[in-house]
Amino acid sequence: MQNYKKYYPIIEKYRSYFEQTIEKIKNSNNLDEKLLLAEFALKYAVKYSTGYFTSSFLENFYLDYAKSIKSEKLNKEYKKNTFLHVLTTGYKAGGHTRVVERWIKYAPENQSHSVVVLNPCENLPKLEENTKEKNGECIYFERDMALKDCALKLRELACEYEYIILHTHMEDPTAVVAFGVEEFKRPVIFYNHASHLFWIGKSISDITLDIIKDDEITKINRNIKNAFFIGIPASISKKEAVNKQELRKKLSIPVDKKIIVSSGNFHKFNPIGDDNFYNIISDILDENTYCYLIGPSKKHKIWKNYWKKSKKHLIPLGIIGFYDGYLDYIRSADLSIDSYPLPSATALMDNISYNIPSLSLKNALGILDYLKNTEGFCKTKEELTLKAKNILNDKNYAKQILKEEQKSLFEIQSVEAWNKRIKELLKIVPKEHKINELSYEKDCREINDLSVLNYFCGKKNNNFIFSFIKYYLYKYIKKNRKKEIKYLLEIKRF
Q: Would the pLDDT of 4 be above 70?
């Protein structure tokens, strides 16, 4: 990993602008303007990386707003052993929604699990199936609801359940407004699925669930005292034997070559100078070795260039839904290499569980517990290259690596291990929800390598003129606030 310090001034620039926006909120006397600026500030801090991992000022602002929204239908009665999972939105690809699916699927039969999706998306058949099997339902809110209306509806719905579990997006303030009032009594559990990014929600979290043991970001950068290690539920079960040759024929993959796969949201592969996936894979690829990338696409110029540079041996496939062929590519591979420079926790875990030996390179974010004490964790590019070639050319070595990884994965993330921790969690979660007032002066503002990683691995448009035209169009002509903010964010990058 290269030295990121040369990029620190970029983060300082974005931190300064974020703080200026906070001052504008403080100085405004107009609530609508304050709400607009707060929405912008949230999205800005997530998108551009500022050194902040949370903002007590913004949380306190939304807590004050929550108190102004009166509830008339707060039902004090609820059914025992009922859980409401709250999603900002759901996805057919990636690990975010798979966690919720598995949580519900693996839950004991005496529990009832429902899901509410605040921002409508495509229907999620697997999620709907799993909730139905657990005597729950999938609830989709109406599209483009105002924050006030959405939060009030969520508050009243959540009263009917014993436990509330948040899987919300980092920039989504709905849960803070919904549960930021004393009269709401049901305990709120926050699943910290994006620890490395800025987010709000700790003010309303009765317990925070971490996916890494002793997460330093939780303890130091967020000063959270109520954390509980829960991890990620793995899809571990007896996998049916597969005929790799038949799978490869089906996918038009060379039958007699060595095949590597890597998967993750395309932004996890965004290069940071020389720190990029092409550089770590280039010495492994040869005339007999191909690498298929799920996430990045040849529609993006940089990946088309890498495809050509590799003589078409590094093949970006774009996004593939988990149930739409993704697993066929995984099961057809000889080796899995983690996304880089940002790792993909759930993806690599699934690859191991589907009997594919896997490697991950040290990065600024760190590595999950199930892999860090195995041979699958590589501290240098040279170590990764050597191990990759050994796995591809020595079946006994590949089996040895896989056996060790699966043993560790099973011990930490199996269904049994997951449900044991859930049982422990329910013993210690507070019986009544409480609000935590926060101090903005105590917020961590440290700029470090992780800040740089977050910035470069964010989703950004590189065309200033396009962004400016779109911003002007939505601000002054179409008057679409969401789109206006979207393109204003792009403009502020330049």
A: yes
